[in-house]
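Justification of computing resources. Each target in the renewal requires a structure prediction run like the one illustrated here; the chain below, 520 residues long, is used simply to show the kind of job we budget for.
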Amino acid sequence: MDKVAAARDSPTGRRSVRAAQYLRMSTDRQTYSIENQRDAIADYAELMGYDIVATYEDAGRSGLNIERRPALRRLLADVESGQAAFETVVVYDVSRWGRFQNVDESASYEYRCQRAGVRIEYCAEQFANDGSVGSDVLKAIKRSMAAELSRMLSQKVFIGQTRVVRMGFRGGGHAGYGLRRVLVDAAGKPKAILKRREWKSLASDRVILVPGPEAEVATVRWIFKQFLKGKLEVQIARELNEQGSVTDLDRRWTTASVRSILRNEKYIGNNVWNRTSERLHTSRVRNPPSAWIRADNVSEPLVDRKLFERAQAIAKARATRISNDQLLTDLAKLLKEQGSLSGKIINAAAPHGPTKSMYIHRFGTLQAAYDLVGYEASANYHYFRVITQLHRRRMEIVQNFVAAVCRAGGHALYDTKAQLLTINEAFTIAVWIARCRSSPYGYSHWPFHKRRLLGADISVLIRVLPDNVTVRDYFIAPAWIAEQAPPMLSPNNGVRLDAFLFPSLDPLVAMARRAPIGGA
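Resulting structure tokens:
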């Protein structure tokens, strides 16, 4: 018996089922628009006697993984917390649940809901998701078809992009310093120069590269000439910054930005694409040269080909790997000659040795390299080390707090950009950490940078002991109380502020705990 017939044969006085709906659309356009899914689910709910009480919507989200789908993650969290106000989740079809490349992953998320007592139903599928052998087989087939469709589309896009690149058109990305992107129509007639963040809108249009302003072209050629004279990328970047020049992204020149010009074949008119790839939202990988898609001599070169080849030969000779032991030997020798070390001193000696960036790349920080050669750096480096240590401790506390809230049945989401915690989508918390400072008289105090706690409903300041690891206590207060606090906290701040000191974050966990409606 299909689902529609079951709905018709059901007694008219049946209990209304509380249900949630999950909606997702990536780039499938009208067929899978959010509105179409919502209408289909509404019709299905009316037939089945369901009352839609919650909506989880991932608009413009790919179904290839769960990391980029906050609504699905929130749905699973609500279901597994035991506090969900519904017993069924209605989805348009299997592909809206996801196009996971591993079909077992797709099944695992549905199983997690079922284990928590919440059913998943697909309103547009021709089978009832009732756990029977037939429905399980059809679901497995549908999941495989959804995954395969993504792979087929990815391959078609790759083939089409390869063809476009080999015809001499731009494969994507920024033009680069000294170059500009020009939009051309199907006949190859120029239409307009594309500015930054402007892209073609017609499928028949194409993009080519042309030389940019004369000043930028002259700078590109100057970079190559300086490199052939023996200057390093770091020295060239320094001179460009001293001249007041900026990159095509309006940023200061760095070793990496100079190197990107010296290595890229587009400056001799070649079109090279697929150096790296990130298919189906997997991790970005560097492809071997044999996988690169090339088209030579398709645009006007900015530098002579022989000049470019000489630059590549010099770069290859310099790239001969120096062992870590040799790097430390050179650093110790430099310390003996100069009596001290700094990034400026290291780069000044760069024509005869490694650069500062090389030490950072190999050892993580300059301080780590200094420690290995027995050099006690300035107090600034000690300060940076303490700040890094405190940042790691803060993130550890935030992660433990998020886990505690989830165990308590609540939902916590940390926004790394805004540096705010959102609890149950009801209130926000700003968490910061203060290092322990000692006054000349031996008393401890903690700086309170209130600007870091703005924009939240609740402010939390973690105060640590002099080891800058062990937590002393937590200042937990409404935002308006925190704004009135002094810029430096002491062990005793008066009853008005000390009343908000707690030994743990348990009060916030208690606030986040959800209670069933009947027991509220």
